[in-house]
Amino acid sequence: MFSKFLLSSAAIILALAPAPLLAEPITFKDVTGAEVTLPKPATRIVTLPQPGAATVIAVDGTSEHLVGMNPGSRKAFETGLLKKMFPEAASIESGIVAEGGNGWMPNVEAIAALRPDLVIQWGGRGDELVAPLRNAGIPVALMVGGGNGGTEELARENISLVANILGKPEKARDLFAWRDEVIADVKSTLAAHPAERKPKILHLRSSKGKFTATGEKSYQNFFITLVGGDNVGKGLGVQAEVNAEQIAAWNPDLIMLTAAETDAGRETIFENEVLSQTTAAKTGRVYKTPNGGYVWDSASHESPFTWMWLANLAHPNLFHFDLRAEVKKGFERLYNYSPTEDEIDAVLKLDLNASASNYQQFARK
Prior knowledge:
By secondary structure, the protein is an alpha/beta fold. It folds into two domains: 26-166, Nitrogenase molybdenum iron protein domain (Rossmann fold), CATH 3.40.50; 194-362, Rossmann fold (3-Layer(aba) Sandwich), CATH 3.40.50.1980. The chain is built from 16 helices and twelve strands. The strands form three sheets. Strands 7, 8, 9, 10, 11 and 12 form a six-stranded mixed sheet that branches. A hairpin with a 4-residue loop joins strand 7 (200-206) and strand 8 (211-214). Helix 3 (50-60) crosses helix 4 and helix 3 packs across helix 8. It is globular and about 55 Å long.
């Protein structure tokens, strides 16, 4: 009788136990194909790749499982809307890279002190970024960045990795359905207008002090091509430093300036004696790229916004995405957050792009 009581009590305790205590081990492959096994979905995560922190928050719907992030992620957090949406994330530790390292070299002691279930690190960039963590007995899962050839497929693999780590594969499926919907919309519109001229588009990863253009092996090439543009930087590989004379020879119709370079605006083009004479400058088609929960000109969970934004600007006669409505709906989907009109203005950088051609289409009605 007593044993039956014990068994019954145990069953009740198990039934009332929090879900993580009942969770079974999960096994998945990271983006390099390596198998990773965790005793349960990770609840204490450290991310070293810069998009990783924002992706974890978006997939998880909360910042509570992120305990460490790259200083670069911290900068993006401070300059975008994540700080407003998840103010509690301001206390997440960012001193996790080695002093004098290359930006991703882990400070193993600092990371171990955070007691992570898992560290997300870059793969394909040298074993020295990974071995110190594994040697310390810390589980690691690897993303692969656009420096290894940026593609939409790779972007999705990175999102899937985060969803698997958190035990939320359904969130990845939802995000992919959104991406598929926008891609199909863009492609069908272009297919209906096969004679439409392709604008020559330049994306600059840096424009202050030096000009760094992205090439055909970059994620930027994917979305420039997707919206019916011609990437003038094709032939540069992932990216390369170029001079003003080279840009003038390309004579782009439209120039995108990265959102990541927060101290450089449209003046880097208009105040340059050579670049101010390009078609893009003369027609006002120089744009500072928006920044939401993450910068829009890098591969991330927010990329569909970039595609719609650039499609409207590249082909204003063909595309008429209501980007303000899309941002509001998309942020509710990604972050369970409804941005205000002022916040949407800030995301779209309406102040920096106020005088840019066709940019008033994004102003509040």
